[in-house]
Fold this sequence. Notes:
325 residues, mainly alpha, DNA polymerase, domain 1, 2 domains, 2 strands, 3% strand
Amino acid sequence: xxxxxxxxxxxxxxxxxxxxxxxxxxxxxxxxxxxxxxxxxxxxxxxxxxxxxxxxxxxxxxxxxxxxxxxxxxxxxxxxxxxxxxxxxxxxxxxxxxxxxxxxxxxxxxxxxxxxxxxxxxxxxxxxxxxxxxxxxxxxxxxxxxxxxxxxxxxxxxxxxxxxxxxxxxxxxxxxxxxxxxxxxxxxxxxxxxxxxxxxxxxxxxxxxxxxxxxxxxxxxxxxxxxxxxxxxxxxxxxxxxxxxxxxxxxxxxxxxxxxxxxxxxxxxxxxxxxxxxxxxxxxxxxxxxxxxxxxxxxxxxxxxxxxxxxxxxxxxxxxxxxxx
Length: 325
């Protein structure tokens, strides 16, 4: 006989699965977003089970959420290798916020589908410190772009990747999904569907086009992906997705070149995206245009870069204000 608790558990678990399917099919969320939401919501589900709390949808209430947030704030982090942080480190406030955002989104979806559940507006997001935007200066960008050795096809590929990332501000997930036949190198542009299913046109610099052409000239394969691995077993019968470069491979590659050039910060694809946006704003681009080029849904997301340019504006003020008197 199925107990009431098991029945409620099954109901909540089923609705979480349906919500994740909604994100995938109707919202067009990336596989990474879906994976993260599954992790955050399953943690909530696991906590309820361990606490022996009934798992019906209507049982989610402000007091339950408060207890869960206390649990998150005290959740210890296990490190797989030595860090400078204490062994007693707990989940960061930003990560706690991601868990709460996932729960609020789930509740909002339930209400949209006519389930009587707690209003997500009753859940306040934890206050987090302002995001620190890390970016490279012009001189540091030049050093990074010149890091690959161009005598191999892999080096030519890496050079093309770095040039494209800095030229476009693409997310790494968007970069690795690119196929050769989707790029118009003559017009130096291509269309892409980014985060949240938002479509945009992406523009390439002439320099990025030149390096892409150099890389593609030495490719002797017929695989569709723009960027592929060149090591390991590969045959003509290997599928496109088996040779397509992964986001993790690109992240490791960029980190390697940053360390090789002894750059002062850990370089990631997102640091190149930040550098792209910062470079545009410092050159005088308006924030709305930068928002469109980055594929941000909300202008608030793009506004994190205005803090970076404040120092630049101060330097202009100090250099030119009052000089005409």
